Structures are given as structure tokens and as C-alpha cells.
């Protein structure tokens, strides 16, 4: 089970990728397993030396009771200190941001998020991406 942020690759040029654990509640995990996630406008931010994912919408679990979660709460990401320091240094450079790329479950059943150190694309870069995507689609159609 994997949920991808498809717009991330169109809007940003990804430089580095990291796999991070997420601090979740039980109802959030159940909603993730059913694929009820929206990446719209989600991003990662450092607060007091820790990395948090903001505005990631995980829908409420239908069968959840009073213990259901807030759909857009900030969620802490779990990485080791070496990776966090490396990202902090890159973020201070101009134009870099951290965005979620995909959510998946590890072999041990833990929910993980792949985050990317990204730089925003300019309009001409986006046009180039569209041309490349259409050319790839045309090649696949011819080879079928």
C-alpha cells in the first residue's frame, strides 16, 4: 500500500530523499491503510530542532469514536540527528523546502513517509516536464 504525492514531482525538483517514521494515533493508521490521505499544500517545518509535517490531511476514521483524531494536526517525523542537521543546513540555503513525496508501510507494518529536499521549478521547467511526459506517453502507445 503506497500513496504518492503526484504534484510534488511536477512542482519541485527533488534533490535528496529520506524515509522518516511518523508519530500517529490508532485512528490515523486505520485511515492511512484505507488510503484516505490528501497531500494538498502539505510541507515540513523545523520546530525546536524537530521536524513536523504540516497540513497533511488524514481523514477521520469512519468507525472511530470519541477518540478520533484531528484530520490536519501537525505530525512529528522521526529521523536521526545526522539527517536532521544535514537538512537544516540545506534549508538555510535559498530556495530549498522539504515536502512529503509518498506514504507507505514498512515490512514491519510501520507507517513511513518519504520526504524530499526540493527546490521549486520555474514555469519553463514545468513546460519541459509536460513535454517529457507527453513524449513518454506517446512512446508507450506506439510500443503496445
Question: If you had to describe this structure to a student in words, what would you say it looks like?
Answer:
With 144 residues, the chain is α+β, with helices and mostly antiparallel strands. It has a single domain, classed as Small protein B (Small Protein B, Chain: A, Beta Barrel), CATH 2.40.280. It has four helices and nine strands, in the order E-H-E-H-E-E-E-E-E-H-E-E-H. The chain has a seven-stranded antiparallel beta sheet. A two-stranded antiparallel sheet has the order 3-6. A hairpin with a 5-residue loop joins strand 8 and strand 9. The longest helix is centred in the last third of the chain and has 21 residues. It starts with a strand and ends with a helix.
Helix and strand topology:
Layout: E1 2-4, H1 6-11, E2 12-22, H2 26-33, E3 37-38, E4 43-47, E5 50-54, E6 57-58, E7 75-78, H3 81-92, E8 96-105, E9 111-120, H4 123-143
